[in-house]
Recover the amino acids of this structure.
């Protein structure tokens, strides 16, 4: 039966974890996957999460099946974070949300839903984009192309290139946009540029699919949602995949959400009914624990305030690692200007390291980065930053 099955290549991001775990060098560093570690190199258990978990365990809560679309309080909490506490759009009943298996799960159920609705449409993603975007939409049956995004020469954003590409797309093309903290580059458009992007999406009748997996890691929860709100203000129907994996440090709990903004309340009921078919035929309904924890933090004012504080702590630590990395590289004799790392946002830096340099970092120093040169700044800490900077200096030569 399985004779003809070929060996698939390792996943470009999660495959690195497998290699990293098998590496026996004591000073190894994992700058591959997008996971935040604290200054001791541990994935933190947030205090708000610990409190919500303790209360849940103490309550001996039953674990029956959840509704197909998940926990109502979780979904309404996700909507408020995206569209604002008192969003008239949410009030109008035009917005629906389904708890999903992480941000990836949200993208996948969204992709499956869209594939049925728009079989003739293609998907465009940024160049570069998160490696799984292309793979996921292609697996869902779409042709996937790219629009210009990153300008390697300036380490900045190619605004004109992106806008021109969007203008040339056929109507109903699905445009995947990173609403904040672009993965992998860390380079985001300005507010004015976003306004023009949103206008173009509306004028060209494109289908926006906003991916927001790092809300809170840029400037703050509200600030990072501004792009979602800018699209909402233009009355665009859209899909939004969001994730609590990083912001709650609950990676393995697969806590994401797919939100869709529809034209009317009645339309939203129809859309939700079809989305539920997609979910039911994939995994039936989402798991309880992580979703219940997130829901309780989002809906308990003291825990919510604590979460915001803890999230700010993570954001600030990443910023300080950016500055320190730039300084340390200089200290170790790197003459190349790396100051761009400081203005990048979120967990990642597109470092400009070549595939060869990334390979040397891994082989010679046990430092793991994505082949594209993406490094996870959130995995640097005071114990490894000097080692990393020295190693980078040595491979740059
Ligand atoms: C990443 O880009 O490293 C994260 O989003 C984790 C993943 O699933 O790839």
């Amino acid at each position: 039966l399985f004779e003809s099955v070929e060996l698939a290549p390792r996943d470009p991001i999660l495959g690195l974890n497998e290699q990293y775990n098998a590496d026996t060098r004591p000073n190894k560093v994992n700058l591959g996957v997008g996971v935040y570690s604290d200054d001791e190199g541990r994935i933190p258990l947030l205090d708000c999460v610990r409190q919500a978990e303790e209360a849940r365990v103490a309550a001996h809560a039953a674990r029956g099946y959840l509704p197909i679309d998940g926990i109502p309080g979780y979904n309404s909490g996700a909507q408020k974070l995206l569209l604002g506490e008192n969003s008239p759009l949410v009030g109008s009943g035009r917005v629906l949300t389904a708890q999903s298996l992480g941000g990836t799960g949200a993208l996948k159920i969204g992709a499956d839903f869209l594939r049925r609705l728009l079989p003739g449409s293609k998907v465009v993603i940024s160049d570069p984009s998160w490696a799984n975007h292309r793979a996921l939409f292609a697996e869902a049956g779409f042709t996937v192309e790219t629009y210009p995004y990153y300008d390697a020469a300036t380490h900045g954003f190619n605004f004109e290139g992106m806008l021109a590409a969007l203008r040339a797309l056929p109507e109903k093309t699905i445009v995947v946009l990173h609403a904040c903290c672009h993965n992998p580059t860390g380079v985001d458009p300005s507010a004015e540029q976003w306004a023009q992007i949103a206008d173009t999406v509306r004028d060209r009748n494109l289908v926006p699919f906003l991916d927001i997996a790092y809300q809170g890691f840029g400037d703050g929860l509200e600030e990072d949602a501004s792009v979602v709100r800018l699209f909402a203000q233009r009355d665009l129907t859209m899909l939004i995949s969001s994730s609590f994996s990083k912001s709650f440090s609950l990676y393995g709990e697969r806590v994401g959400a797919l939100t869709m903004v529809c034209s009317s309340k009645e339309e939203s009921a129809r859309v939700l009914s079809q989305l539920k078919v997609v979910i039911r035929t994939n995994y039936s309904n989402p798991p309880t624990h992580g979703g219940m924890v997130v829901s309780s933090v989002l809906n308990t004012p003291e825990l919510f305030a604590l979460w915001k504080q803890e999230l700010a702590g993570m954001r600030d630590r990443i910023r300080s690692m950016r500055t320190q990395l730039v300084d340390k590289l200089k200290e170790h004799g790197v003459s190349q200007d790396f100051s761009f790392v400081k203005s990048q946002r979120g967990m990642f830096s597109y470092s400009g390291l070549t595939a060869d340099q990334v390979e040397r970092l891994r082989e010679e120093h046990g430092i793991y980065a994505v082949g594209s040169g993406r490094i996870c700044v959130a995995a640097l800490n005071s114990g490894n930053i000097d080692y990393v900077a020295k190693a980078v200096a040595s491979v740059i030569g």
User: Anything to note?
Assistant: Residues 55-300 form a domain with the Aspartate Aminotransferase; domain 2 fold (CATH 3.40.640.10). The longest helix spans residues 301-331. The chain has a mean pLDDT of 96. The chain has two domains: 14-45+304-396, 55-300.
